[in-house]
Design a protein that fits this description.
Helix content is 48%, strand content 14%. Strands 1, 2, 3, 4, 5, 6, 7, 8, 9, 10 and 11 form an 11-stranded mixed sheet that branches. It contains 13 helices and 11 strands. The protein is of the alpha/beta class. Strand 5, helix 5 and strand 6 form a beta-alpha-beta unit.
Amino acid sequence: MIDIQYSSEVQAAKSEGRAIVALESTIITHGMPYPQNVEVAAQVEQDIRKAGAVPATMAVIEGVLHVGLEPDQLQALGQAKGVAKISRADMPACIATGGTGATTVAATMIAARLAGISVFATGGIGGVHKGAETTFDISADLMELAQTPVTVVAAGAKAILDLPKTLEVLETQGVPVIAYGQDSFPAFWSAQSDLKAPLRMDDPAQIARAHATRQAMGLPGGQLVANPIPADAQIAAEDLAPVIAQAQSEADAQGIAGKDVTPFLLSRIFELTDGRSLTANIALVRNNARLAAKIAQELNKLTR
C-alpha cells in the first residue's frame, strides 16, 4: 500500500462526504518565484473554498504522497530547491527512494485516483509538441487522460503545443474533450482558437453526469473540460503567435528537449510579453478552480 498523508482539511472533507478538488504542485515549484508561487497557490485554494469545495494540493514529500498540504508545508515546498517534476514514469521511483517531487497533470491525476478524488483543476494540460513527427515529444498527460478516471478542468492545452495534433491524439485515445460555454477549443492564454471542440457543455451538472455515465459504462479514462480564460484576462492569439515562434526557435537552437522544453518556453514567453503571460496564467487557473469546484459539487450529489 502507498503511504498517503491527508491534510486535516481534506481528511475532514472525506469524513463528511464533501466535494474535493485536486490541484497540482508544479505550478508552485516550477511555475513562478517565491513568494508569488505560494501566494497564488493559496489564492487558488481559497477560490475553491469560496465556490463550495475543498482543495487538495498534491505533492510527494520525503517519499510520502500528500493529498492536501498544510500551510507550513505549502510554504516549505514553495521555497524548496531541486524539487523533482514528477509524472507517471518517475512518480513511483520518487516515492520509493524517499524523494520530494511536485506533481504534473499526469501525476496529480494518479494521486487523485488513489485518494478517491474525481475532479482536478489545472492551468493547461501538456500535449503534442511542435515537431513531434520527428521528436515524438508527446506529454504523458494525454495517455493519463485515456486511462485514469478524473475530470480535468484546464484552459485547453498550453498554447506552445501543436493543438490540432493534441486534439487528434485525444480523439484516438477516446478522451472526451468538452468546451465549456463555447464551440471552439480554447488556446490557454487566448479564449478562442480556430479549432472546433469535439463536445460542448454549458452546465457543470451536465459535465458531472457525463463523468458518472462514463464510469457506469465501465469506460477507462477521464475527460478534459476546456474552460476558456476570462475575456478581460486573455492575450490575443495573433499577438502570441510571433512570441511563441521566437521562443520555440530559441529552444531548437539551444538543443533544449524533453521535460526542459515547457519550462524554457514559458519562461521566454514571460520575458517576451513583459509578464503578461503569467498574469493571464494566474487568471485562467483561478477560473478553472472555480468551475472545478462546481463540477465536484454536482458529481458529489450524483454519487453520495
